[in-house]
Amino acid sequence: FRCYAWTYLIRRAVLEREEALRFEPGILYEDVVWTPQMLLRCERAMITDVVAYRYLLRKGSITHEWEQTKVKKNIENQLLVIDRLLQQREDHRDVRWYDNMIWAMCESVLTTIASRGYALRDEFLPRVVPIIQRVQPYAAGQTRMERIKTAIMQCSPALYCALRHIH
Questions:
Q1: What confidence tier does 46 reach under pLDDT thresholds 50, 70, 90?
Q2: pTM for this predicted structure
Q3: Under DSSP, is residue 83 helix (H, G, I), strand (E, B) or coil?
Q4: What DSSP designation does 93 have?
Q5: H helical segments located in the chain
Q6: What distance in Å separates the CA atoms of residue 136 and residue 139, rounded to the nearest whole number?
Q7: Residue 71: half-sphere exposure toward Cβ, Cα within 13 Å
């Protein structure tokens, strides 16, 4: 399952009866925390290959405009989401989904540092490294390139940032 709210069609009744299923205002990537909570409350789910969503790229969106203060807020929000996922993870026996989501968020933090916030590396790297060392992604189904990225991230997140920073 993906963590993005836009990948799901949810009955209004589920959202109306569950007061806890609300996004927190001002937090980026809040759907990463919201999705597992929503899925656990659903009685059933269905998968389809129907394309029901088209992404519109526009100037000024939070994912396409990158001044330094936005980059810092973006990274801080990603770390907040990671912390919340780690908390949710503690309540479940099968943690693979959480481990993969946490790992993906850590990779996103490193990629953001490397591509847009390299000057913030010393500030945020020490917060991500212990998480990378603690959580392992579920390797089944990973491509060779994903396994290489995982190995580099595990060995040296700083090296991963340096390699991604090459233009």
A1: confident
A2: 0.72
A3: helix
A4: S
A5: 12-17, 30-41, 68-89, 96-116, 121-134, 144-155, 157-165
A6: 8
A7: 17
Alpha-carbon gap, residue 89 to 9, rounded angstroms: 24
The Cα–Cα gap between 118 and 14 comes to 42
Nearest to 102 by CA among 138, 63, 49: 138
CA distance 71 to 9: 30
Q: What is the mean pLDDT of residues 4-16?
A: 80
Q: What is the pLDDT of residue 127?
A: 92
Eight-class DSSP state of 91: T
Work out the average pLDDT over 66-83.
84
C-alpha span between 39 and 24 (Å, rounded):
18
Q: CA end-to-end span of the chain, whole Å? A: 33
**Which of 128, 136, 88, 96 is CA-nearest to residue 112?**
128
Give the pLDDT of residue 167: 52
